[in-house]
Amino acid sequence: MFGYLRPFRPKLSVYDDALFRAYYCGVCAELGAVSPPCRLLLRYDLAFFAALKDAFAPEGPRLQKTLCPGRLRRLPAVRNEASRLGAELHLLLFAEALRDERRDGGVAAGLALPFFAGALKRAETARPEIASAILLMDEGQAALETARCDDLDEASEPFSRFMAGLFAAIAPEWAAETLRWMGLCLGRWVYWIDALDDFARDQKTGNYNVLLQKGWSREESAERLLPLLALCEDEALAAFELTEAPRNGEIVKNVLQWGLPAVSLAIGDGRPLGHSPWAGQIL
To answer: Residue 123 to residues 81, 120, 132, 256: CA-CA distances in angstroms?
Structure first.
């Protein structure tokens, strides 16, 4: 994904802080199990996704010590179906990002692909339905970019629909429609915040950006988007609370209630998020 779905650490309990770290390390370990270079692709969204999936699991997550090549010591990690799914989803979305970069004329995509081709193939074999959904999303996105779409909702539609289907698929039947709405709202939020984050780069390169197509400046884009982003944040939080998920609720709610607004304000102000998995500054 993009690295925007982050917890807001000052509002996390010590336990939930450690548990999110364990999910983060678990997804990283699963990426390393596929291919060590894949660890370099790690983003924080997939730890959130793994925690969300486990929120409806019949049993709570079990931690196991896993060697961290970055810190050269063993760290507690969640290694289960949720972390494996997060890693494989991450690889499939990375493949989509490479296709998007190639459409924009990027050279790096062609250079990177051989290093990850085997890992991407294994992920496609393991998750064929998700791979097909991502291809469908990519085709829809490419068509809108070619048409130079200037409608915010329409431009975000392929990704938000993909997220809606993905979230519904990991939920139990009784929570599927509620999680579908949550995924739709988060998909719009991620697409719009990414467009704002990439504004200066896309303006320089001439790549497609729905905000540039609107004819807005960077300042006007932030001013117009922040209320829409806040609405998506509120809707996603309300949807999750309706599910009354049996576990990991405080982690998920922290990301939705505090992490997303902190990221929105940081990017709206033009501040870099940095490499920390936490949303960072106190509001």
So the answer is: 14, 5, 12, 28
Interval 247-263: pLDDT, tens = 999 999 999 999 999 99
Q: What one-letter code names the amino acid at 118?
A: G
- 31-37 CB contacts, 8 Å cutoff, 24+ apart: 31/87, 31/90, 31/91, 32/69, 33/87, 34/87, 34/88, 34/91, 34/119, 34/122, 34/123, 35/116, 35/118, 35/119, 36/69, 37/115, 37/116
Q: Is 279 helix (H, G, I), strand (E, B) or coil?
A: coil
User: How distant is the alpha carbon of residue 243 from its chain centre?
Assistant: 21
Which helix (H) or strand (E) is 66 found in, with range?
Answer: strand 63-68
The model's pLDDT over 164-214, given as tens digits with 9 standing for 90+, comes to 999 999 999 999 999 999 999 999 999 999 999 999 999 999 999 999 999
- Cβ–Cβ < 8 Å for 83, 50: yes
Give which of 179, 164, 283, 182 is closest to 235, Cα–Cα: 182
Q: Assign 127 to helix, strand or coil.
A: coil
Q: Please name the amino acid found at residue 96.
A: E
Rounded distance between C-alpha atoms, residue 277 and residue 26, angstroms: 14
Question: Cα(first)–Cα(last) distance of the chain, in Å?
Answer: 25
The helix (H) or strand (E) run that includes residue 77 is strand 73-78
Burial of 244 (0-12, 13-18, 19+ CB in 10 A): exposed
